[in-house]
Prior knowledge:
With about 325 residues, the protein is α+β, with helices and mostly antiparallel strands. Helices cover about 40% and strands about 15% of the residues. It has helices at about 10-15, 60-75, 115-130, 145-155, 165-180, 220-230, 240-255, 260-285, 300-310, 320-325, and strands spanning about 25-30, 35-45, 45-50, 90-95, 95-105, 185-190, 200, 205-210, 215-220. The strands form three sheets. The chain has a five-stranded antiparallel β-sheet, covered by helices on one side. Belongs to the pseudomonas-type ThrB family.
Amino acid sequence: MAVYTDITEDDLKHFLTEYDVGELTSYKGIAEGVENSNFLLHTTRGPLILTLYEKRVEKADLPFFLGLMQHLYARGLSCPLPLPRHDGQLLGELSGRPAALISFLEGMWLRKPEAKHCREVGKALAQMHLAGEGFPLTRPNALSLEGWKALWAKSADRADEVEKGLQDEIASELDFLAGNWPKDLPAGVIHADLFQDNVFFLGDGLSGLIDFYFACNDLLAYDVSICLNAWCFEKDGAYNLTKGMAMLEGYQSVRPLSPEEIAALPVLSRGSALRFFLTRLYDWLTTPPGALVVKKDPLEYLRKLRFHRQIASAAEYGLASEAISS
Ligand SMILES: Nc1ncnc2c1ncn2[C@@H]1O[C@H](COP(=O)(O)OP(=O)(O)O)[C@@H](O)[C@H]1O
Ligand SMILES: N[C@@H](CCOP(=O)(O)O)C(=O)O
């Protein structure tokens, strides 16, 4: 469960006086998510989401995240819209944390996505990449090469507790990625965490994307690699070629990948697998027992990383041959 900061009814009611949202009728903490504290509010004007921003979110980045949601929404992407306070600000404070109210998005996230859903996710990711064009704020990716090294420095000493030999394996992976990371690929605003729990569906139709709190400026194809990692592997660790094909077809139906982006997919996928391995490893080693959050398994991403390391070409992700040669 991710409610790190509790709130009182009185404080919440006081916080809501700054907004035009009617009367509070009920509220409860949401037992999902990892990063922030989220509450579902019912008001006389309808449901809303209250988010209190926690440890990995820098307050200085909040105008980027909240402004991005406004920008994407205005360009037709289905995503939550932050609500302005009476003074026009999107951000307030509650229980000592920065806090925002955002619109409630209908739908549910899928526990068992199929290839047809991966196709929809691919399309929505490409739509987001196009809709992000022209967003005036920028935010470098804090979880790219330099950020990985910093995270690794905090966990390396204890990594062999999780699996023997990890210290050497990850150190040499970081060296490889530092020497081979692509530089001149198309870049823009990426979601950077488009996992299953951040994509809502109503039936088989995608109803929207949530959780833009890792969004940043980076290589667009890196975001594709994050989705391949998050959506196209089965629980037993096997890569599902049908899902990969559907995801990539969906993406390319909206924004075709260049030959250079396609060629870079294996190294980008190694990087994105390492990124989630490292944050999970850090949380695994530092979250105190009994904390009200479900720790995610770092080894799932180590296995994905090893899979990408033995990929000979991007064709193995399920790209049609005409997409590779064009
Ligand atoms: N705009 C929204 N509409 C509906 N539900 C939401 C919305 N934002 C968050 N939620 C709910 O809160 C949960 C956690 O939100 P999320 O943004 O993923 O948190 P975290 O940043 O902590 O991972 C989601 O799985 C969903 O159930
Ligand atoms: N997607 C990340 C964890 C971040 O969680 P989210 O609830 O913000 O999506 C992972 O799986 O490691």
